[in-house]
Amino acid sequence: MEREEQFLAVPCHESGHALVAKALEGEVLKQTVVPEGDCLGYVLVSFERFPLHEKISRMMATLAGGFVAEEKIGKRDHSGCGSDMDKLDFLASYASRFLYCGQVSAEHLKSRAFALASQVLSSLSLLHYRASILSQKKVIT
């Protein structure tokens, strides 16, 4: 990975979350790349106005957005995505069991989340632009 891409890895990851959330009509409440505890940045989003199954589907795609954004800039070490993937696994398992009564697998739901995030983040230029702004400002609220 080039030096600029290494510098933009965290902002790209967080921008991936935010861009997917916005594309799915979510509200981005806060986005930061200021380290807090174990995390190097985070995005707070809300999908309040949607029914539960839509909230979960949109949140899963938003969680996948960080991983997909890293892939887009060529980052292959996804060690910073562990927490996101744990949340995605939990939501997919919950939705599979309780919302779809086992008729849709958690793996299928995760696959759909990644496909949706990839579709939203197909424009690498928008991701780089958003990440550059985030890295300059450190915090966007």
CATH architecture: Up-down Bundle
**Given the C-alpha coordinates, what overall shape results?**
globular
How many discrete structural domains? 1
First and last CA, distance: 29 Å
Contiguous low-pLDDT stretches (5 residues minimum) are none
The value of Rg in angstroms is 15 Å
- The ordered H/E elements are HHEEHHHHE
- Please work out how many helical segments DSSP would assign: 6
Within the largest sheet, what's the order of strands?
Answer: 2-1-3
Please state the average pLDDT score. 89
- CATH H-level superfamily title: Peptidase M41
Structural class: mainly alpha
Q: Helical residue percent?
A: 55-70%
Assigned CATH class: Mainly Alpha
The tally of strands reads 3
Main sheet makeup: 3 strands, antiparallel
Q: Kindly identify the CATH topology.
A: Methane Monooxygenase Hydroxylase, Chain G, domain 1
Question: How would you briefly describe this protein structure?
Answer:
The protein is mostly helical. It has helices at 3-7, 9-23, 52-72, 82-99, 106-120, 124-137; strands at 27-32, 42-46, 139-140.
Give a verbal description of the structure.
There is one protein chain. This protein is mostly helical and 141 residues long. The chain has a single domain, classed as Methane Monooxygenase Hydroxylase, Chain G, domain 1 (Up-down Bundle), CATH 1.20.58.760. It contains six helices and three strands, in the order ααββααααβ. It has a three-stranded antiparallel beta sheet, covered by helices on one side. The longest helix is centred in the middle third of the chain and has 21 residues. The two termini are 29 Å apart. The model has no long low-confidence stretch (mean pLDDT 89).
